[in-house]
Every structure is written in C-alpha cells, then in structure tokens.
C-alpha cells in the first residue's frame, strides 16, 4: 500500500536524498518534463539490466525535472526514429542511452537524424578525436561511426568529476534530444559532467524532508493521513522497500515553502513512535573517513581502528596508483572498499581507487548490477579477470606489475574463496604485499559495519551468517 499525493511518479533512491535529520533543496524547473529512451536489444532480451534510466531519473528529479515516460526499444532504426520524434514533441528533454559505437547495431545517430529529416555527416572535431583514439583516418572504418552524427547536432563537453579535466568525448544533442552512451560507467560520467549546463535555466526552489521507518505503512497510515489533511499544499509520498536491511518505508515531504515543509515533517515525526525511526545515511561516501573513525570510537570497535591503521600505513608508503582492492561484491569487499576509499580521500579528494574482480564463473545479473553501481559510487577503476583463481591471478600480475599492495578482505570465521586466493597469492607472488585488514573481523562485525554506516550492499547477500 502506498500513500501518494502530487509527487513524482517514480520511487526515490536513497543515494539522492538527505538523511532523516536534514532538509534538502531541490531545484524545480517550472513545467519541465523529460522522456528517457533506453536503446538496446540486450535490455529487451534480459541479457543486461538497465541501470541507466534509474540513474537519469534520479538526477533529473534532483533538478526538479519530471520524468513522464521511460521507453526501452531495440536496435531498429525506424522504431528509434519514431519514438524519438514522439518524445521530442511531448517532453522538454529527451534523453537517450545506448546504440552509439562502432558495430552494425549502433544506429542511434542515424535514427535520430531520420527522426528530424537530416543526414548523418562526419563532424570534423569528432573525426579528429576518433583518429587520435582509434589510430585511423579512414572515414569508412567502424571506428569512425562515432564521428558521423546528425548534421544539426551540437557538441557539449563537460568537466570529468574524477579528473577535473574536460571530457574526452562530448554529449551530442539534436534539438531537445540528448544522446548518451549505453555503458553505465561512461553514461554516468558524461551525464554528471554536463548536467549543470544542460539543465541550468529557470529554476524554482522546492524543499524536501525524508523519513525512513522500520515499520510497515499500516503502522503509521493513520498518522500520515492526519498530517496529509492538515497540510493540503504539501506533497507527501510513501514508498515501501521490501527485503531491505535498513528500513521498510521511505516517506517524503515536499513544499516550495521551507517553513511549511518543516512543520509538516515535525508534526509527522511527533506522531510516529521513536522506535520506528531509522537514522539512515543517504550519502555514506561523503566524509567517509570521519564517519568510520566515529563509528570505531563510539562503539569501541578496536577491529575497525586496526583496519584503518593497517590501510593508512600503506597509504603513507605508496601512491594510490600502486594499490588495488579485490572487489567481488560480497559484504567483506564492500566494507574493505569503503575503508580504503575513506583513507584515500582523507589525503586527497581526487584520489582514485583501483579495483580488480576475479570471476571463476559469470555473476548473476543482480550481482553484476551491484558491482557496476559500486564502481560508479566509489569512482573505482575496476578490471575483471575470468577463470580459475590461479590463472586469473597470474594474468592480473602480468598486467599490473606496478602494484605494490593488493588488499583482500577475508574475515577470521570464514574459509572463503578469497582466503584461498590470498594464501595462493602470498605463496606464489611474494614481491607484492597482500594485505588483509579484516583478518581480526568476524562476519557479524562486517554486517554491523554495513548496518551502522548505511552501506549499499547486494541483496544476494542479504542475511547474516
């Protein structure tokens, strides 16, 4: 059951909103709307999970732009052209993802050109970019497909948030259609780099408050209905979240009047029993080092302080480019990645995290999606090696002889595949320091850390062992 009045038609994601004790300010564009078109047969066949529309919708909401429709369509030029033209006529912004690249099924540019009755032509600036990157000047080569765009297209470069430099490849737009790559990490980097420029006009402020509750909607429905009737000009939303460790319901309160938003929030807060209120951190990667230390000190967790000290010793000796974390999506690697991220960012906000995944067999789509989300969350440069552990480890070492320290998260009460990896690595590759900062942790310690710091995790591992 969900209670809703005058609110965006999609469920909020925790990473984009403030925690229980804060008021966030969203920029609301008057009468701005958006349609998202996700392009790719692999989405329709269930071979790849679509995370792009979720990311885009969340960020458009933050900017006050109402997403009115999301469409998933295959690699058919005529169908894409038809959908793009329809969306362009009905929405302020049209965002497309996927279908740009060198292969035969990358037809987004030609489809958008067809939608507006244009031709696809090589753009001089893009030709130079492709020539430099792909080392070819042949306009008919597959690599040059990225340089052939609709004739009226505009280029917009942004600033890559991870490097502080101009993006290597621009966003390309035709009229009100903005074209993004389909690979999630590339799409997210480009979107974040250009969003300020794309959506900067005519904003009106709206204030948002959030509550996270450990009860069901039935338990507080009467209280919510009372506050809803008391504040007719305030927007309320209630969103259940199933099978989540942190909370069961997320409640949003929105108004263009800050005082009214605060009053509605406080009235509802006063009615709900305190034991139902969850102190959920929606941005655990912000000020992560301080939060980690506070948790260790306040809870008297010596194993947390020991792990931090172990990681910091290597941060003092080696550069970030000489260190790497093994990340395979399990709770231990989530904790270890967060610890290393905090220690690196303590010394430099621009420090990038290197990661490696060793896969003996393909991951489930759910776990694969979580790994991609984590990669984006920590701005991690993640490489994958598939096959038996000994083979993948040797291949990894051959490619990355420059790594001086590799961090592996193995707890004391579990004989995991990573523990086998660590044992094999220490024996066969002694020139690299193999570090296990979680060696005196238990499985319970791992989940306690995740729960206390609100760290995103894969629901594939949604139980304590």
UniProtKB/TrEMBL annotation:
The family this protein is said to belong to: In the N-terminal section; belongs to the MoaB/Mog family.
SMART domains, per the entry: MoCF_biosynth (SM00852)
GO molecular function: catalytic activity
Pfam family of the protein (one): FLAD1_M
Source species: Gryllus longicercus
InterPro entries linked to this entry: CinA, FLAD1_M, MoaB/Mog-like_dom_sf, MoaB/Mog_dom, PAPS_reduct_dom, Rossmann-like_a/b/a_fold
Record lineage: Eukaryota, Metazoa, Ecdysozoa, Arthropoda, Hexapoda
Name this polypeptide is given: MoaB/Mog domain-containing protein
UniProt domain MoaB/Mog: residue ranges: 35-201
């Amino acid at each position: 059951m969900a209670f809703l009045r005058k609110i965006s038609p999609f469920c909020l994601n925790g990473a984009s909103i403030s925690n229980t004790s804060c008021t966030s300010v969203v920029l609301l564009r008057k009468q701005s709307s958006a349609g998202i078109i996700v392009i790719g047969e692999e989405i329709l066949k269930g071979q790849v999970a679509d995370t792009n529309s979720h990311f885009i919708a969340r960020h458009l909401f933050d900017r006050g732009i109402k997403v009115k429709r999301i469409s998933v369509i295959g690699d058919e030029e005529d169908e894409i052209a038809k959908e793009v033209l329809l969306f362009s006529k009905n929405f302020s912004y049209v965002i497309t993802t996927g279908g740009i690249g060198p292969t035969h099924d990358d037809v987004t540019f030609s489809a958008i050109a067809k939608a507006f009755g244009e031709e696809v032509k090589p753009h001089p600036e893009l030709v130079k970019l492709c020539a430099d990157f792909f080392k070819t000047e042949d306009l008919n080569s597959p690599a040059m497909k990225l340089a052939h765009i609709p004739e009226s297209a505009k280029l917009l470069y942004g600033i890559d948030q991870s490097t502080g430099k101009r993006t290597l490849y621009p966003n390309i737009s035709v009229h009100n259609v903005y074209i993004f790559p389909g690979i999630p990490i590339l799409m997210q980097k480009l979107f974040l780099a250009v969003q300020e420029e794309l959506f900067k006009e005519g904003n009106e402020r709206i204030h948002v408050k959030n509550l996270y509750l450990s009860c069901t909607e039935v338990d507080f429905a009467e209280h919510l209905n009372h506050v809803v009737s008391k504040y007719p000009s305030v927007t309320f939303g209630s969103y259940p979240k199933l099978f989540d460790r942190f909370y069961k319901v997320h409640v949003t309160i929105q108004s263009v009047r800050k005082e009214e938003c605060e009053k509605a929030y406080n009235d509802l807060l006063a009615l709900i029993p305190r034991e139902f209120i969850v102190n959920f951190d929606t941005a655990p990667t912000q000020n992560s080092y301080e939060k980690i230390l506070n948790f260790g000190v306040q809870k008297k967790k010596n194993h947390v302080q020991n792990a931090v000290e172990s990681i910091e010793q290597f941060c003092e000796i080696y550069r970030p480019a000489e260190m790497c974390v093994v990340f395979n999506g399990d709770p231990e690697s989530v904790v270890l990645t967060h610890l290393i991220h905090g220690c690196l960012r303590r010394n430099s906000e621009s420090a990038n995290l290197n990661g490696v995944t060793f896969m003996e067999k393909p991951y489930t789509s759910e776990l694969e999606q979580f790994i991609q989300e984590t990669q984006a969350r920590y701005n991690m440069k993640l490489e994958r090696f598939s096959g038996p552990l000994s083979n993948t480890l040797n291949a990894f070492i051959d490619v990355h002889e420059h790594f001086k320290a590799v961090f592996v998260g193995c707890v004391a009460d579990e004989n995991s595949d990573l523990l086998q990896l660590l044992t094999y690595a220490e024996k066969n590759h002694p020139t690299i320091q193999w570090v296990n900062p979680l060696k005196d942790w238990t499985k319970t310690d791992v989940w306690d850390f995740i729960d206390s710091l609100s760290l995103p995790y894969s629901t594939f591992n949604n139980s304590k062992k």
